[in-house]
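Memo subject: From amino acid sequence to discrete backbone structure tokens
Keywords: amino acid chain, backbone geometry, structure tokens, three-dimensional fold.
Body of memo: The sequence and its backbone structure tokens, given next.
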Amino acid sequence: MFNILLGASVPMEYGWETELFALATPVGGKKMNNCAVVIPCADTDEMLLQHLKRLEAQGCKEFDVLLISQRKPNVESKVNMLFFRENYPMGSSGGFGVGQVLGYTLGYDYVMNADVDALPLSNNLIGTLKQTAEREQKLTFPLFISNDTGKMDKAGSGNPNQYGTCTRRLFEGEGFEYFRLFKGSEDMEFMERLSMKGMIFLERSAQIGHKSHVFDSIQLLKSRGNKSIYYKKSEVIASMLFARHCILRGRPLPAFRYIMRAWSACVKTQLFHSQYPDIHRPVMEAMRLNMDGVSPFRTSEIKEEKFGAGSRTLQLFSGGNSKEGIIFPEKDDPHRMGEKGIIGYLGIAARLLKIAFSRADYLLPDSRFLDQYASLLNILLLLKPVKYSDGKIYSSGLSVFQVAANFAATLLLAPLFLLVILLAVFVKAGEIDYPITTKNVKKNLAGFLAYVKKLDEASKQKN
């Protein structure tokens, strides 16, 4: 099947094909070009079809699409497609990281990772990215245009999974995305690792459209799945591994920054999610660089409060002139944290104190506040119940005494968290094959295969 799939262009045997094709088995299609667009597809056929229509309009036709999915999508397209069956749920990191290894193994000169909903806006996207990646020999990515605003999204531009383009020489020199994170942070890890060496390039003449990412704590706590749990866990692990990577290369400042990032994530989990063991436990495991844990679907629930007529509400606004509530300054970029500088943070702190000592029974944020200050909802839930956009009122489920006790416990545990992280970075991280390169990819594929089999078995037992 491998030779049939490749047609006349059969590369040398690398020694990791058994593990690779056990994760993503070739089912159909033939390699026709030197450029691969890797699309892990867990979404609807409609979104994939919309994406393929955009690819059909490309001026450069010399590319193949590598579809990685648990089922063969029911779509037809004029672009040349190769389909790979995802035998075990690999998560986003597996889809994209394993996809890069797949493209390299099949002998492609250029590999582009593409979210299924990252839609090409430029008809010259593929050709421009190929030319620029070959010239620069860096991770090359297009300009990110927000579907919500129609403007450039600075927070989104630079995601390697949104048409980030790599050459074979780049993979051989710098390695692949760290797919063993399973769900999330593999893009951050790859981006930061290459950025540290000046190996990234933004091609502004190529553009894609994608939704802006605004995800708040109430959405997370309402979710019954485990995707967000793995995101939290992966952020800690990726930060710690990259910190050690920096230390070994004599870069103490970025190492310190990423150690503090991991520590901050653990402290925030203790402060805001200690009452949710199915969120709390995986992050505490990640702090010890335990990469083998299986996170179950959530069983704990955010508490829903009931308030009758006559209850006192406090409205929260972003912008506006209302005198009936508390006004937060409107922000141009919803990914930024409020007003700029120390004065801005002091202003936000003053507003939060005002909320804490108000006599309101619950808070009523407007829709713009929920978009622009989603990161504040963790704090607001500890202060007061919050009426969310679904019309329901949610709280942390903790009394004032419990909130104070958890705050004190977090202060006491914070130094211990830092000690555990430092020990893991300097000792445990040395036992992990990171980053994933052509020299250790076989071992990492085998470890990842064993892990996703474990996850699949746990999922079957639950069902």
